[in-house]
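Subgroup meeting minutes
Present: P.N., E.W., G.H.
Scribe: E.W.

1. P.N. recapped why we're keeping a running log of single-chain structure predictions: easier to compare across weeks, and new members can see raw inputs and outputs side by side.
2. G.H. added today's entry (196 aa).
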Amino acid sequence: QPFRDVGAGAAQHARVAPPSEALARLSTGDGRAPDAVIAHLTGQLREKDARRVQRLVIDVHGVGYEVLAPLSTIYTLGEPGATVSLRIHTHVREDVLQLFGFATALEQMLFERLIAVSGVGPKLALAILSGVEPSDLVRAISGSDLGRLTAIPGVGRKTVERLVVELRDRLAQDLGGSPAAPVTAGAAVRDDLLSA
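Output recorded in log:
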């Protein structure tokens, strides 16, 4: 199928038809397009579906862009007809070009770090960002809070362990802090004794 409808009501929405060879040239192997093919969108919110697919359609000068977004972003947007502005991550695979939108730089950075973890794709990364506030996610990963992370729907223990191992130091580096050591009962008691 040479064309893929970007949204329902194809007459109002863009149709994307990048040839496979062009997508192969764009892909860097990690799903991220070089030079962020589309890095930002500002336009009129046409559709907003937060129930199951977390999907937006943004009309930019008559072209409708389908954008998938975490609930934290969707809830900050107004109703259809409002002007919106989103940071965009362009995800390129052989067969599809997807746009993921974020209200803040922190959400986008977390999404990009999450999809770099083995076994975490864009849909799971969206589920993780939709299951916990971005600042809480950073705290949970930095503090190795496996219980908090496994409480996110669709995220299993092995995935959570991988997230903590691969992202704890990286997030501390990205956010300008030092890696947080896991809190243990012994460490908490020791800290209490030293502060007394």
